[in-house]
Amino acid sequence: xxxxxxxxxxxxxxxxxxxxxxxxxxxxxxxxxxxxxxxxxxxxxxxxxxxxxxxxxxxxxxxxxxxxxxxxxxxxxxxxxxxxxxxxxxxxxxxxxxxxxxxxxxxxxxxxxxxxxxxxxxxxxxxxxxxxxxxxxxxxxxxxxxxxxxxxxxxxxxxxxxxxxxxxxxxxxxxxxxxxxxxxxxxxxxxxxxxxxxxxxxxxxxxxxxxxxxxxxxxxxxxxxxxxxxxxxxxxxxxxxxxxxxxxxxxxxxxxxxxxxxxxxxxxxxxxxxxxxxxx
Length: 280
Known about the structure:
Blueprint: E1 2-5, H1 11-22, H2 26-36, E2 41-47, E3 50-64, E4 67-79, H3 88-102, E5 107-110, E6 124-135, H4 145-149, E7 151-155, H5 161-172, E8 177-179, H6 183-195, E9 200-205, E10 208-218, E11 221-229, H7 232-242, E12 247-253, E13 259-268, H8 271-278
Parallel strand pairs: 4-5, 11-12
Antiparallel strand pairs: 1-2, 2-3, 3-4, 3-8, 5-13, 6-12, 6-13, 7-9, 9-10, 10-11
């Protein structure tokens, strides 16, 4: 078995494995391979030309105090069923972690399907997400917040992305370590939302940008992410009105307080680089 990074991005065998194992909705998989796969690194475990396993390393810009790093978000960790429990996943992860160490990247992170797979590799939970289900307005409700406040929710125009980045960073900075919501990130978030028949949305009161969120849909449910506002109660009411008669699930943001669920695990990959972060 050899472990190699895919140099010429031959999509079909990777796509076939991805869909066979993860069974993502077709539109999301199309988005992922058009928008993310094109710029990521894929480590393959192979015997000859046969792929046994893979790991995708998706780069994101991470801000830590005054410094900015390009770090890897680990996704799509997969081994064909007939080759599992043979140490292939461990070998792939070990190589990825060693390579990140050689590049002096301070840490890496992932969202685990099962924490037990990653705890032996010293991954630990570092971030909770608050998840809330709220009730939308019904047709019989008389409240129309938009008219009362000269407020509106519209699709985020690309020419507003710089402004949106500045707006969102005010909510990110207290975390000290965070993904920068730059143009590239916002464009990708918009495309991902479109794969779920939604979009990246902005909330205005008058001409003032006062909120941002991403939406996607499934049947009679709407999923809201990255929901931040300087007027959270007003934006929440507007969301309830906009999606009336639907179940609304909100993850991340400052609109509601929900159940905290451990979501993101991380692991230090270079102690010296991590020490530089701690010492500012």
